[in-house]
Prior knowledge:
41% of the residues lie in helices and 21% in strands. The protein has 13 helices and 13 strands. The chain has helices spanning 21-33, 36-42, 47-61, 80-110, 112-115, 131-141, 155-163, 181-188, 238-249, 267-276, 286-291, 314-325, 327-334, and strands at residues 9-11, 17-19, 66-68, 76-78, 121-127, 146-152, 169-175, 196-209, 230-233, 263-264, 281-285, 295-308, 339-340. Strands 5, 6, 7, 8, 9, 10, 11, 12 and 13 form a 9-stranded mixed beta sheet that branches. A two-stranded antiparallel ribbon has the order 1-2. The longest helix has 31 residues, at 80-110.
Amino acid sequence: MHLDPRINWSLIGSMNQDIEPALFSLLRAIKKQGSLQKSALSLDMSYRHSWGLLKKWENEFNSPLAIFRRGRGHGARLSELGEKLLWADEYLETQLRPNLDKINETLNESLADYLQKGQKKKIHIFASNGLAIKHLFKLLENEASLKIELQTLGSLDSLQNLHNGYCQVAGFHLPLELIHDEVLSLFKRWLSPEQRLLTVSTREQGLMVKPGNPKKIRQLEDLTKRSIRFINRQANSGTRIIVDQLLKSEKIKSKQINGYKNEEFTHAAVAAMVASGAVDTGFGIKAAAEQFNLDFVPILREIYLLAIDEKLDNKTVKHIVSLLKSPEFRRPVNKLAGYDARQSGKAFNLQW
């Protein structure tokens, strides 16, 4: 709900009457179209209604507002009175509109809590896929005052959408053991110091392998063996950033890995590929490995963060923090293999 102050004219006489805004729209259309019929069509108004509106106010003013050329369909133009009325309305709009807009903004800010009662606040979220964040979304969707619009994207893509103003919240993964200038530069490109960062959870990432680890995969270097078939995550995902940085730090070239260019879009999809025997290993979370009864070789921990647009109202931000700190969120997340939600809801400092 939104209040919008407007300018209205009244005709003061024996009977005070408010002039319908539609009359000024009709006069403006006649001046532009040069025809009552075309004007009516442009305003989605019937010819009969437009004619009646015009004649009603001509009777009130006791003077014509439009001059019609002889013969049906030969066009029309505004009379001198019609021109003066239209000029007066446009002049008043030009002079008063800037002040009305300021009044409008102040008024709606002051009455926001009352005007928004019973309405859901819409929050656009772009977020990297994850089990903990899915649980948070469920809690947010259960809130009667909020309407959540979620789109799942990779970490960097989500942050880019936040930077470009397409959402108010972006969720992304950051590898804790790889927080250095090169990795941070990828994320800081789309972040600003004014944005608030909230911790959602941490989780273990590593190599998912078949039960018993028949190929004896224990480290990233093992991926270079010709017999090992690997499945990767998509570009710009948090997991793909981790894989690429780990390979770089260990001086392993991607072309040495059989399957590096083959991609899946979720941890579950990677785990399913390993479980089916289509590949021997893939990089992912411990919880996905457990879900598909796979063995897991831990490599590092990563943190899931929410970046909050600085314009998002403080009341909503506090509500998100309270949900993250609640037992309803922490308890089920802590039960997930490799997950830790003990710090959820706490601010995270990115070191600018």
